[in-house]
Amino acid sequence: MTKVKICGINSPEAFDATVQAGADYLGFVFFPPSPRYVTPAEAALLSARAQGGPLRVGLFVNPGFDEIDAVLQSVSLDILQVHASPAAVTALRDRFGRPVWRQLGVTSAADFPAKDEHADGYVVEAKPPPGATRPGGNAVKADWALLSTFRPAKLWLLAGGLNPGNVAEAIAQTGTPGVDVSSGVETAPGKKSPELIRAFVKAARG
Ligand SMILES: O=C(O)c1ccccc1NCC(=O)[C@H](O)[C@H](O)COP(=O)(O)O
């Protein structure tokens, strides 16, 4: 079954809808400029609303050890998702003993990761548009034809510009084992819709 991640959870309603819809992963964005940013204390309060359920993924942009340490003091994370170099991913895995997913912006096969990278998985989307204020979560659709040739030995999630209306087609065209959404389940930047979350999970699972 296709793995589903709902990213940018920042309200009790969005958290509960994601749990009830049976998503595999939910993401907390620890990048202050993002409209989906949550403080570690806010993430902890949200996470405590359910025992178990979706694995908790923390999203960081070029994080230092101290930044992640500070978050982990408040909230337990199962997976770290990072915008970072392959070398930094190796260091983070060693330091935190958790799976680390690397976020990739891909516009050609030259952007595909090397086979000997130590990342545990990839979140793959288009590169950010010119002038973007964040490196991901910009609602830009990736090149699905290109990604139909992406076959890493690890888990990867297709991201970028997905929504309840196009996710089934995206899965069919790319053959991705998983999908990740943020903007496509929002009614405004940072405003998650429980209805759209439920519709997305249902459409992704077909
Ligand atoms: O969402 C953000 O604000 C964000 C900020 C900084 C780095 C990454 C960010 N988001 C990454 C993601 O949540 C996923 O790639 C996302 O599912 C795809 O984004 P979208 O096109 O908005 O669905």
UniProtKB/TrEMBL annotation:
Biological process (GO) annotations?
L-tryptophan biosynthetic process
A Pfam family of the record is PRAI
> What UniProt keywords are attached to this protein's entry?
Amino-acid biosynthesis, Aromatic amino acid biosynthesis, Isomerase, Tryptophan biosynthesis
| Reactions listed under catalytic activity | N-(5-phospho-beta-D-ribosyl)anthranilate = 1-(2-carboxyphenylamino)-1-deoxy-D-ribulose 5-phosphate
What Enzyme Commission number(s) does the record list for this chain?
5.3.1.24
What family does the Swiss-Prot or TrEMBL record give for this protein? Belongs to the TrpF family.
Q: What is this protein called?
A: N-(5'-phosphoribosyl)anthranilate isomerase
Source species of the chain: Acidocella aromatica
Upper classification of the organism: Bacteria, Pseudomonadati, Pseudomonadota, Alphaproteobacteria, Acetobacterales
Identify the coding gene: trpF
